[in-house]
Amino acid sequence: MVRAIVGANWGDEGKGKITDMFAEKSDIVIRFQGGSNAGHTIINEYGKFALHLLPSGVCYKHTMNIIGNGVALNIPNLMNELKSLGERGITPNIMISERTQILTPYHVLFDVYEEERLGAKQFGSTKSGIAPFYSDKYSKIGIQAADLFYPQRLREKLENILEVKNLILKYIYNKPELDVDEVYEQLISYGEMIRPYVTNVFEYLQQALKDGKNILLEGQLGSLRDPDFGIYPYSTSSSTLAGFGTVGAGIPPHEIKNVTVVSKAYSSAVGAGPFVSEFFGDEAEELRKRGGDAGEYGATTGRPRRMGWFDCVASRYGCKVQGATEVALTCIDVLGYLDTIPVCVGYDIDGEITKSFPVNALLEKAKPVFEYLPGWKCDVRGITKFEDLPENCRKYVEFIEREIEVPIKIVTNGPKRHEIIIK
Ligand code: GDP
Question: What is the pLDDT of residue 124?
């Protein structure tokens, strides 16, 4: 049985805890896209972890954690994560697909230089090399993990790659050129670091499927960051959709039976781009503060989040493009202080109201149409049954459920591991 856990919105929906919950019951957890440019926060008996690259099953002895071929693998970052787990006595089971491509130090450099060149027009990249990495991958000048173990081939490849990179560095960015020997030595040493983990993941998964193993596909960011269906170009560089699990992990499409889409009970986003239900000032600061870790800063970027009310238009769309079979609505506890809670139920675009999520040219003009739901004015942390939530809180969840047209089966009411209500 294969389940995907993915985000409905801009990322930071609280996928970490939901993934952790399902990971406990999974034989295999796979990261299938993205890199270390985002992250989950997991809180368990070993402490609090921000995992950027490692799959969320790393704390379970019975779980195999796979870095799929669709991932941008930053090897020093991976090693740091493994080290910090090691320091707390955790030695996870890890596999890296031999087809996973390597995010090199020059990808990071090009990310930094390009943002510098763009100046005021920059994308607000996390500068972790993700966009240059994926453009090299699709320009067919990427380096697969297996390439690191064939020195002669690697050297020839690098000579060709760096020829063009150096022209760009010299004539476009006006920066020092790269030395082939240096990059080569670095990549060879990276190869040694990951050698114990690199294997034929495709065959392993084929067998696992045959054996009926429980497999979890773990998504990073959310639907609205997808390069095709998201808010382009304020998107990321690899698909954030559950369907991409077929490509980024090598899972046959018909095997992905369950798609759990995570959405927060309000909206938040890091970085630039249209954000229709956004609000500002003291009101935003209050919610950001109440959200604690969930509100204040992105797990990887440390950038303050922009705040918005729940956006039914964006979230319904976000769920549909994922093929959601169920939704986990997180951070309901954060809203307990409000008298009334605005919910964005439509977009006003040039005087016309729509419920369907538009292309960017129109999205930029969209104004939110709000409905106002009564708040519940109490702390709902510690409640373990949906029926025990205050009536207005249940009504809020049910209202959203009707709007997004997908059953909400999980509600979370606190950052801790067991603060999860199964509905
Ligand atoms: P991801 O990017 O979707 O994986 O987001 P994270 O898993 O990093 O979650 C963002 C933050 O929300 C983390 O600091 C979590 O501890 C916190 N969080 C998750 N669920 C809840 C919840 O139900 N209530 C509160 N208050 N915080 C939560």
Answer: 76
Name which of 373, 58, 387, 406 is nearest 218 in CA terms.
58
358 token code pair: 């538009």
Two structure tokens written together for 29:
């957890």
Distance separating alpha carbons of residues 11 and 226, to the nearest angstrom:
11
Give the model's pLDDT for residue 38.
76
Top mutation candidate among 43, 307, 330, 393 for ligand 1, by most atoms within 8 Å of CB: 330
Q: How does strand 340-349 pair with strand 352-354?
A: antiparallel
289-312 confidence digits (pLDDT tens) = 898 766 566 555 566 789 999 999
Query: If DSSP codes are grouped into helix, strand and coil, which group holds residue 240?
Result: coil
pLDDT of residue 44: 78
Catalytic, out of 40, 52, 107, 333: 40
Phi, psi (deg, nearest 5) at residue 3: -120, 140
Question: Which of 416, 364, 310 is closest to 10 using CA atoms?
Answer: 310
Residue written as tokens 């805890």? 17
Q: Which residues contact 325 (CB under 8 A, 6 or more apart)?
A: 257, 258, 259, 260, 406
Closest CA to 280 of 307, 314, 309, 310: 307
Task: State the CB neighbour count (10 A cutoff) for residue 3.
Answer: 22
Structure tokens at 220: 């990073």
Q: Are 44 and 8 within 8 A, CB to CB?
A: no
The two tokens of residue 42 are 């997991």
DSSP string, 128-173: SSHHHHHHHHHTT---BGGGGG-HHHHHHHHHHHHHHHHHHIIIII
Assigned token pair, 312: 């039914």
For ligand 1, the distance from its centroid to the CA atom of residue 326, given in whole angstroms, is 18
Known catalytic residue: 107? no
pTM of the model as a whole:
0.95
What is the chain's Cα-based Rg? 22
In sequence order, what DSSP letters do the residues of 171-190 get, joined into one string?
III--PPPPHHHHHHHHHHH
pLDDT of residue 294: 60
- Beta strand pairing call for 101-102 and 306-308: unpaired
β-pairing, 101-102 vs 267-269, is unpaired
Ranges of the chain whose pLDDT falls below 70: 293-303
- The DSSP call for residue 282 is H
The verdict on whether 40 is a catalytic residue reads yes
How far from 82 is each of 54, 61, 235, 263, 417, CA to CA, in Å?
8, 14, 28, 29, 21
